[in-house]
Amino acid sequence: MSDDAAHAQADQLKQQGNDAYKKREFQQARDLYQQAWDTFQDVTYLNNLAAVYFEEGDYDKAIETCEKAVEEGRERRADFKLIAKAFGRIGSSYVRKEDYDNGIKYLQKSLTEHRTPDVLAKLKDAEKQAAEKARLAYIDPAKADAAREEGNTAFRNGDFATAVTHYAESIKRNPEDPRGYTNRAAAYNKLMALPEALKDAEKAIEIDPAFVKGYIRKSHVLFAMKEFDKALAAIETAAEKDTAQAHTKEITQQFSKVTSSMASSRAGETDEQTYARAMRDPEVQQIMADPAFQSILQQAQQDPKSLQQHMMQNADVRKKVEVLVRAGIIKTGPR
Questions:
Q1: Of 51, 138, 218, 313, which one has the fewest beta carbons inside 10 Å?
Q2: Which CATH superfamily is domain 3-137 in?
Q3: For the purposes of burial, counting CB atoms within 10 Å of the CB of 238, is it exposed (0-12), middle (13-18) or buried (19 or more)?
Q4: What is the pTM of this model?
């Protein structure tokens, strides 16, 4: 049989294999692709055979077949796209085996041969999975506690930069413990890295919305940022969350400090100055730009009791009113 005739016959077998593959008749597809390769040595048939093994979950066989495809392809000077495809499937097979180092290695080899969006996406996903696996492997609550204690020691000694380093290690070792974040927020606060401190306090609250220390720490940071109305909101929330009254003294002291500073900063303000100051806050701007809420405020000017009714009926309205009360725009009303 001539090469052309053999190639044509092999292509027919490949097409039959493709039909079986689409029907998920994998054993039949395997046999047909193998027959195609035995009839004519085109690397495409090996790549297709490897695809069957991959779908069957036989990743070792898929890797072995793809390695043969690369070897035969190099020898026969096959299209570099076919070599890239074989490398890509080797990489995907290793990823399925959770061998991310080899998976990333072969996906990168595939991109070196021929760059495609599909393989690039698989590489990024593999790198993400590898990072997550490493992160999870690093978690150790006991070591997290030890690192946090080292941070506490450094904090007490006034070495706040070192404390941050130890608290960061504690967070890596146990990222679901909010204490690492509030402790690091305290150290950042001492270093006047206030945006970082606020981010950590909010992360602690995100992890555990009932964690009172998160709200206390947030209030301290906002106080340092001179955002007294937001600091007041945070410490009021801390009081609400502290149902066991385990932090009453700390909350009371912070509440007193915030309200005193707020009163001092606003002493002698005219209504126009109060409004101008409050409108520098993006949250206040958003509330005041809400047409529906503006309608409620206009109604309240004619009927003050209507505002209380809206607040009782709608939690969102109540929150907005509380923001404006703390900002000083609304001078009277329930707190």
A1: 313
A2: Tetratricopeptide repeat domain (1.25.40.10)
A3: buried
A4: 0.67
